Amino acid sequence: MNKDSKIYIAGHRGLVGSAILKNLQAKGYNNFVLKTRRDLDLTNQQQTKLFFEKEKPEYVFLAAAKVGGIVANNTYRADFIYENLMIQNNVIHYSYKAGVKKLLFLGSTCIYPKEAQQPIKETELLTAPLEYTNEPYAIAKIAGIKLCESYNLQYGTNFLAVMPTNLYGTNDNFDLEKSHVLPALVRKILLGKYLEENNWDSIKSDLNKRPIEGVDGTSAPDEIKRMLEKYGVNSVITKERKNDGMKERKNDEGNRSVGQSLNRAIVNVEIWGSGKPLREFLWSEDMADACVFLMENINFKDVSSPYIKGGKGGLKEIRNTHINIGSGEEISIKGLAELIKEQVGFKGNLEFNTSKPDGTMRKVTDTAKLNKLGWKHRIGIEEGIVKLIKWYQQ
After folding, report:
1. Three-class HEC string of 318-354
2. What does DSSP assign to residue 120?
3. Mean pLDDT value of segment 191-215
4. Stated pTM of the model
5. Deepest of 12, 25, 96, 334, by most Cβ within 10 A of its Cβ?
6. Confidence check: pLDDT of 21 > 80
């Protein structure tokens, strides 16, 4: 890519797309085509066709997608498979039609089987059943990989597919129903801290920026509390005896006393599952840097060496040309929640609801392929959590 190459970033306002745009701008790229969802509906074939015919971008980052956490994936199964398939089909097909020089498609490591060998190599794709809760989304992303491979093999395009691990960072989705685990935990634990401090100004400010089911900072306190309780942030009144430091003494009626009975509010934050699953997380700006690195330096031919099926004289097959993007480091959901709790300064309880699903018990990527191509992550989870909390509060 040249600094003045025409670059289209689909989904430039989201977690992934905004990080890619920021990275490109920092590197001196200056010719962008940017469209909001209101300007361009990528699920609409005709709109997408006309956009590519008019704009003719040279390079495309396909970061637009319908995304969410375990609750959203399992609840809106039809929406996740339909919308993602439509976006991918339209953008990839019309990128080919418009003669795009290179395209980068962003998927997810949820494409891999539930019982994949750990750490997960790219060759684990399609070797066993998927995790049920996100199966529709995963199937859509697998289709995107195969679209890129197939157009490359049939039409000679130069389309890359990358599979980032769990991402987090600025401009993330903090919707308590639809967000991924890390931003949801950050928001819930911060709200828990505000509640235990009786800091209603901060609670109202948070809800004004990101209302929950129509409840914002102008809503009545009882309504706000009810909504917080629905999403696992609740205050419980307990009774305790306070010792005022004096020795036991008799009161005026001759009864012994060591202090007084007080009501104390304890805030609990509920977390789905046992907390035992291990997950890998990558700072979004690291992911963006990897994507730009690949677009600048790597082509399909660099990741598409064929292998012979059936030995000598057999069929040459090209598979698993996608590239994992991750840190290769893992942390339990419980460890993640405790790390956020410590950084936020929340003194309440973390309650793990074991009646809710855990999902895959361990998921960490093998990043050897990406590392061999010349890229490695920089931001560790502890540094990233501090950066995210600071950004969210500001």
Report:
1. CCCCCEEECCCCCEEHHHHHHHHHHHHCCCCEEEEEC
2. B
3. 96
4. 0.83
5. 12
6. yes
Q: Which residue has the tokens 């805030």?
A: 267
Structure-block tokens of residue 280: 């890998």
What's the distance, CA 362 to chain centroid?
A: 16
pLDDT, mean over the chain: 91
Tokens of 105: 């498609």
Mean pLDDT of 386-390: 96
* Active-site residue set: 137
Question: In the chain, where does DSSP find H-type helix?
Answer: 15-26, 45-55, 70-75, 77-97, 135-155, 181-196, 200-209, 221-230, 284-297, 333-344, 368-373, 381-393
Candidates 164, 191, 144, 141; CA nearest to 327 is 164
What's the CA gap between 68 and 133, in Å, rounded? 11
Helices and strands of the chain, counted as H and E runs? 12, 18
Distance of CA 209 to the CA centre of its chain: 20
Nearest to 322 by CA among 65, 62, 122, 103: 122
Say how far apart CA 52 and CA 385 lie, in whole Å. Answer: 38
pLDDT band at 241 (very low <50, low <70, confident <90, very high): low
Closest CA to 356 of 74, 56, 29, 36: 74
Please state, as a whole number, how many other Cβ atoms lie within 10 Å of the Cβ of residue 312: 5
Q: Which residue has the tokens 């962003």?
A: 106
pLDDT tens per residue across span 176-201: 887 889 999 999 999 999 999 999 99
Q: What pLDDT is stored for residue 359 in this prediction? A: 77
